[in-house]
Amino acid sequence: MILRGGRLGKDLREKIAEFTSSAEKDIILASYDILQSRVHAAALEKAGYIEEKDLKEINSALDKALLALKEDPSKFVKGFDDIHMAVESFLGEPGRKLHAGRSRNDQVACDMRLFLRDSAERIIELLSQAVDALEQKIKSSDGKKVIMPSYTHLQRAQPVDLATYLGVYINWFKRDSERFSQLKKRLNLLPLGSGAGASTNIKLDRNFIAKELGFEGLLDNPMDAVSSRDHMLEFSSACAILGSHISRMAEEFVILSTKEFSFIELDESIAETSSIMPQKKNPDCIELMRSSSGRLNGALVGLLTVMKGLPLMYNRDMQDDRIVFDSAFKAETLLDLIPDILENISFNPEKMGQAARVGFTDAADFAEYLVIKGMDFRDAHREVGRLVSEGISKGYENFSDYPLEDLQKEIPQVETDLKDFIKTENAVARRLHKR
What we know:
α2 runs antiparallel to α3. The strands form three sheets. This protein has a two-stranded antiparallel sheet. The chain has a two-stranded parallel sheet with strand order 3-4.
């Protein structure tokens, strides 16, 4: 059923009807549309626009609509232009009164806010589970005692511990959670009562509607209520930022699980093999997690492009704001995988520790030691760099390989406490555990 009314005497051309229909993609919103229809009906009855018997019949019909939706979502929307008309088709004669005081413009705005609120809450919970999984991994791996090299430009930098390394992702996910908590406050506002965008003469208790639907406040400008999508942009942006964090973590796990590093071992239950090379154990799932950032970025850019330059108020372009569904489902799917991935990877402390002790990774600690002893940092940097070059020519891997007396001959500020100062475990504990 397509709403045409008395204004348009001709049927809509079939191809155009198929192109403009939102029914199939909006199945996701149907349960929310049923929910808000219940509350809207209650508000109409409360204000005296419908009778109590009408309200009972509407609620009974909405029960049937919800059951039909659960049984066969595709059949539920078949033949309808949108989910609003699909829901209304169950209501019979009392349903003809239900649309008083609302437009599909504020209806869909309400449905989307309800959907995004639920998704944000799920994402916040999944982020909490990801943080818990990371903290458990640090604990089970004895993370403060496992030493590994850090990297800049993919070159060995300074020794750190596994707890600090995994703690990066904990901090990222906590900030992601803060973003979703903050945006939830901005999207959890009621648009119903705004009509098509110029409000309505049907005066309903919007505070009652907001309370029943769990909204924390009202959108007070009806034009804003139906035309704004910044809450969707913010949601999609938060998903894209989250995706970049997950992508970077996935990239690390892929690289560190290669034989060239061998810092991480993947359990067979999260790996796949090659169709031609029998020896392969590939991180396919983690690679797909890495690539998913592209989908999340694309959804954000797509939504920004849809909204760019649109005049007030509602425009049918906004039907393509459903790109945000991809943001929500992809973010939830990725987060749901993280505890399983962490549970089924193991770290190789021996390999990590060996890598942390070669490549003159103690050079920065040596330079700062000289600063503590009174040398200017630029001079310390130059002298230590010179000794790195000399050490490499002698086959040394770190300053711990240098005889102390040789270093004392080269730099007068070197004292007998140097070797203890630059010892990997001591340096890591001093730099990272006593902040």
